[in-house]
Write a structure and sequence with these properties.
The chain has seven helices and two strands; from the N terminus they run H-H-E-H-H-H-H-E-H. The chain has about 260 residues and is mostly helical. It has one domain. The protein has a two-stranded antiparallel sheet.
C-alpha cells in the first residue's frame, strides 16, 4: 500500500469533511425554506443535510484511523440501492431522495474503507503478512467502491441544483424567510438529533439501501461541530446549492482512494 497515497487520502478526507459540513448547513436552510410551501420536497432536502453530516464524520474518521486487532475479519462493502424502496412521488422529490441514498451508499463505502485501513495497520503491526494482504485487497475494493459512489454523487449534483432552482422559482422560496431556530427545529423533526435516532424521513430513506452496515447511521465522535445544530447563524444563500467546490473535493478524494493500493 502506498504510504504517500495513504497520507493524501487522510488530507483529502479532512478537507472534504469540511465541505460536507458546509453542504449540510446549506441543504438544511434550503429545506426549512421549502417546508413553508412543500413539506415533501423539504423532507428530501433535510435528509440530504443529515447525510452530509454523516459523511463528514466518516471522512474525518478516515483521517484519524488507529490500528485494530481484529484484522482476521475482512469487510468488502456490498451495499446497494433498492430503487423500489426509494421514497417520494413527484420527480424532483424522487431525485433528491436518490441523491440522499447515494450519500448513504458513499458512507457505507467510507466506513468499510476505514475498517480495512485500520485492520491493515493492525496486521502490519504484528507482522501478519497474509492478513495484511487480505486487508490491502479490501482497501482496494472499498476505496474503489466508495469512489464510484462519489462519482455518482457528482453526476447527480447538477440535477439537484436544477431541482432546487426549479422549486425556488416555482414556489417563490425566500432563503431569508426562515430563522436559525426554524432551521434547527425542522432538522430535529425531519432528520433527528442524531442519525442513530432518525426522524421518519431519514428512516424511510435508509430502508432503500440494502446490505449496508447494520450500524451505518451511528456516526463516530470525531470532534466535528454539528453543521446545523451548533452554529449561531445561518449560511448565506449560495449561487448553487452544490457548487463546483464540492464537486472538485469529491473528485479529488475519489482519485486519492483509487490510488491507495498500487501493484508492485
Amino acid at each position: 500500500m502506498s504510504a504517500e497515497q495513504r497520507q493524501a487520502v487522510k488530507q483529502q478526507a479532512t478537507q472534504t469533511a469540511l465541505l460536507d459540513n458546509n453542504a449540510a448547513a446549506a441543504l438544511a436552510t434550503a429545506a426549512a425554506a421549502v417546508a413553508l410551501f412543500s413539506p415533501p420536497h423539504a423532507a428530501a432536502l433535510g435528509v440530504g443535510s443529515g447525510l452530509f453530516w454523516l459523511c463528514a464524520n466518516y471522512r474525518q474518521s478516515i483521517a484519524n484511523d488507529p490500528p485494530r486487532d481484529d484484522f482476521g475479519d475482512v469487510w468488502m462493502t456490498t451495499a446497494q440501492l433498492d430503487e423500489a424502496q426509494l421514497p417520494g412521488e413527484e420527480s424532483r422529490e424522487r431525485l433528491l431522495y436518490r441523491f440522499d441514498a447515494q450519500q448513504l451508499l458513499a458512507c457505507d463505502g467510507l466506513y468499510a474503507l476505514l475498517r480495512s485501513l485500520e485492520r491493515y495497520d493492525g496486521a502490519v503491526a504484528v507482522g501478519d503478512i497474509d492478513a495484511a494482504n487480505s486487508q490491502a485487497e479490501a482497501v482496494r475494493h472499498n476505496g474503489e467502491t466508495a469512489a464510484t459512489h462519489q462519482d455518482t454523487l457528482i453526476g447527480l449534483a447538477l440535477e439537484v441544483n436544477s431541482a432546487w432552482a426549479s422549486l425556488r422559482d416555482e414556489l417563490g422560496v425566500d432563503w431569508n424567510a426562515v430563522s436559525l431556530a426554524d432551521v434547527q427545529q425542522f432538522y430535529r423533526d425531519t432528520v433527528g438529533e442524531s442519525p442513530q435516532e432518525p426522524g421518519p424521513a431519514l428512516e424511510a430513506l435508509a430502508a432503500s439501501v440494502v446490505d449496508g452496515a447494520s450500524d451505518l447511521l451511528e456516526p463516530f465522535d470525531t470532534g466535528l461541530d454539528h453543521p446545523v445544530l451548533a452554529p449561531n447563524e445561518l449560511p448565506d444563500e449560495p449561487q448553487e446549492l452544490l457548487g463546483q467546490g464540492y464537486i472538485d473535493g469529491w473528485s479529488s478524494m475519489s482519485a486519492a482512494m483509487r490510488s491507495l493500493v498500487v501493484d508492485a
